[in-house]
Amino acid sequence: MSSTVKLVKLRKAKDNVDLQTLSKEELIERIQQLESHVTQLRNLLKPEHASKKGEGKKNSRVFDYKKYTKRHVLLHVAYVGWDYAGFVVQEHTEKTIEAELFRALEITRLVENRETSNYHRCGRTDKGVSSFGQVISIDLRSNMTDGKGVYVPEGHETKLGTTEEIAYAGILNKVLPPEIRVIAWAPVEEGFSARFDCKQRTYHYYFPKATLNIENMRIAAQHLIGEHDFRNFCKMDVGNGVVKFHRRIIDIQIDPIDDKTDGYSMIRLKLIGQAFLWHQVRCIVAILFLVGQGKEETAVVHQLLDVELNPRKPQYGMASEIPLNLFTCTYADKDCDWIYDAEALRYVISGYQTLWAENSIKAVMLKEMLNNVEKLLDTKVESQLKGLVYGIEPKIYLPLMKRQKCESLEERIEHFAKRKRIEVSDQDPDKDITASSLSS
Predict the structure, then answer these.
(1) How would DSSP label each residue in 326-379?
(2) Domain Pseudouridine synthase I TruA alpha/beta, which positions (predicted)?
(3) Given this model, what pLDDT does residue 48 score?
(4) Which of 21, 36, 59 is the last residue before a domain boundary?
């Protein structure tokens, strides 16, 4: 009660005093008084808050995971990643696909925590990248006592007589954001990994035709098929131990996906491979755009793949992440038999139809506005690709092979080894880091 009286008196005093007339010492005293009252108020509120918190815990039932078996499964996850900071959990933001997935998994009590979930992801999509075919492997709570992937953890009990599995997709979709949906699940053996057992990955990249010569892009893309050193078509991740850049591309297809014949026709580039490097697809698309625009010859792809002749990557901007989609992750049929829930699929379709309608309306509205503006100009403007490649477009184009080059792989390894030596020497003067140890 006394604290309330003091607060009222302070407010009255504040109303009656012009702060600009107070001296420095008086202002400091006033601040100290305010801080004191804030502390008193916090102390008054704390017991009530703690009591309510304790009552909530007392009344809520503690979920007993030990009453359930576990099942090792794959989850087929689709997401529109435009407004997310990427798939993988990050320290500086909670706006990632993975963070939302685990939030949903914990809310539905399908996992107790990430650390004990035996979790693997198939791909690490970057900020703004979407996926129709992302796959994760994980141990989930199960109603079953036997079956593929089912096991009883140490200390857990088994419930007899249960023949119906949890509707994993259905319950997860009810708590996930509208951009993220579980399409299906599949029981797999306990040691199965979504990452290491994936046979191939397919990326789609969507873009408007604009003035691109699609046939020249197809010719250039054929050089990429097969196993090559793609160090000039990626962002080198030496800091994370990636020093080998050989990857195998199985096929590349570049085809229209609508009936239009003008610059607004939409094209899909389909890239199939076993595994991909950091930013590899976006770098490939950027180079193919240069070929399609007539700025580079189709042979430039072959030149960039010749790392003996061109060991240092020329500087160029990557293609935008927004049109990129990890569309399919493929597994052996004998290992993976997807289970689809009709009700869950209807829920997915309904939600994605809503997103489609919103974005289609925006596109149609913009197109109608463009049609009317274009009638006012005699000359034709074809800038549909503007914004799909990062970097400032120079007034005079400089061919790739004449541009300033990045560090070579060997220089990057030596640079990173030198930095590590400095860090290690500060902690352990007797330990040595060499470039050869990093590249081996």
Answers:
(1) EEEEE--TTT---B--HHHHHHHHHHHHHHHHHHHHHHHHHHHHHHHHHTT-SS
(2) 220-331
(3) 44
(4) 59
155, 66 in Cβ contact below 8 A? yes
283 domain residue, yes or no: yes
Q: Which one from 15, 18, 64, 126 is the annotated catalytic residue?
A: 126
Judge residue 237's burial from the number of C-beta atoms within 10 Å of its C-beta, 0-12 exposed, 13-18 middle, 19 or more buried: middle
Question: Please, which residues have CB within 8 angstroms of residue 342's CB and are 6 or more apart in sequence?
Answer: none
For the stretch 27-82, pLDDT in tens is 777 776 776 666 656 555 554 444 444 444 445 578 889 889 999 999 999 999 99
- Residue-by-residue DSSP string for 12-34: HHHHHS-GGGS-HHHHHHHHHHH
- 174 with 278, same domain? no
What number of other Cβ atoms are within 10 A of residue 172's Cβ? 24
pLDDT in tens, 335-348: 999 999 999 999 99
The confidence score (pLDDT) of residue 161 equals 59
Same domain, 222 and 249: yes
Q: Identify which of 199, 160, 197 has the alpha carbon closest to the alpha carbon of residue 72.
A: 197
What is the C-alpha separation between 7 and 34, in angstroms, rounded? 9
**Residues of the chain with pLDDT > 90: what percent?**
69
- Looking at per-residue pLDDT, the higher value among 304 and 421 belongs to 304
- Here the CATH number for the domain that contains residue 162 is 3.30.70.580
Pairwise pLDDT comparison (174 vs 51), residue with the higher score = 174
Cα 172 vs. chain centroid, distance in angstroms?
19
Q: In angstroms, rounded to a whole number, what is the distance separating the alpha carbons of residues 225 and 268?
A: 17
Residue 80 token pair: 């529109």
In this structure, of 1-15, 24-38, 137-151, the range with the lowest mean pLDDT score is 1-15
Q: Does 426 qualify as catalytic in the annotation?
A: no
CA distances to 31, 36, 115 from 434, rounded to whole Å, are 57, 58, 33
